[in-house]
Backbone:
């Protein structure tokens, strides 16, 4: 093999590998659920207001919204530890006791996620109680190839998991009173 062909082979191999190394972040998924010894209608009553997150998530200082529970409604969630997130409601299905929303304006210093889409749903369980399922598809705060430890996939998943678990545990306490 001539030196030219050898060099060209290496260039072609490097060009083929480069796009794979520069793909950026992959979506992460978080799903948390909790069993609640209360009828679904009672649990739904506590979570059904899109801008009512402050009433059942202890990590939220305030939650203010516009548009009620209609698609396109918006809310600003101020976190107890500082920072705020702006979400918009994509779908609200009262009959199915669920709604889906997305992050419009992140605060990556306070919450290391650049984007998420999430669904909250209340389902009946076999014992007359409820199961609440809260899931999200999300991207880390730093969407570059080499994120810091505070803005990588693990930090994003941990932040959302912590937020969801705190909310679900408080919701369980309130619903079972």
Residues:
């Amino acid at each position: 093999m001539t030196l030219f062909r050898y060099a060209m082979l290496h260039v072609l191999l490097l060009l083929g590998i480069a796009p794979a190394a520069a793909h950026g972040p992959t979506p992460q998924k978080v799903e948390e659920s909790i069993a609640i010894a209360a009828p679904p209608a009672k649990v739904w009553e506590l979570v059904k207001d899109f801008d009512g997150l402050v009433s059942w998530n202890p990590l939220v200082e305030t939650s203010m919204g516009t548009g009620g529970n209609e698609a396109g409604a918006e809310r600003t969630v101020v976190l107890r530890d500082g920072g705020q997130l702006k979400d918009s409601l994509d779908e609200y299905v009262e009959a199915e006791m669920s709604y889906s929303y997305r992050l419009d304006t992140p605060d990556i210093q306070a919450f290391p996620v650049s984007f998420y889409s999430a669904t909250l749903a209340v389902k009946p369980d076999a014992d007359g109680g409820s199961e609440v399922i809260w899931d999200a598809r999300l991207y880390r705060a730093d969407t570059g190839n080499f994120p810091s430890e505070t803005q990588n996939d693990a930090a994003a998943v941990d932040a959302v998991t912590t937020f969801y678990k705190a909310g679900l545990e408080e919701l369980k306490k309130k619903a079972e009173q």
